[in-house]
Write a structure and sequence with these properties.
This protein is α+β, with helices and mostly antiparallel strands. It contains six helices and four strands. The longest helix is centred in the N-terminal third of the chain and has 12 residues. The chain starts with a strand and ends with a helix. 28% of the residues are buried.
Amino acid sequence: MLFLCYPKCTTCKKAEKWLKENHLEYETRNIKEENPRFEELKEWYERSGLDIKKFFNTSGNLYKEQELKDKLPSMSDEDKLRLLATNGMLVKRPVLITEEIVLVGFKEEHWRSCLIK
């Protein structure tokens, strides 16, 4: 599993604690230092089945500074993915990628139902 997170993010810390408590092995990647590439984001988006808006960190400063709430509706999905690939702080976190699933954001019950068999 690949765990994309921002180490200072409290939600990411909760998610990582949960992964450790449930003895799940994962590789960590700092989303700010190693931004997801367009190709990765495209694959994850397609595999996730989620609306592309779910991939945006709508509560982040960068999202607000760039006034993306107003700009995103007129952008294509490809343009949105290219924008996400410009800065990891635009991406909602944490993101957990396994061979089967892509989870965006941390909701403990959802993660439990997806990851604990």
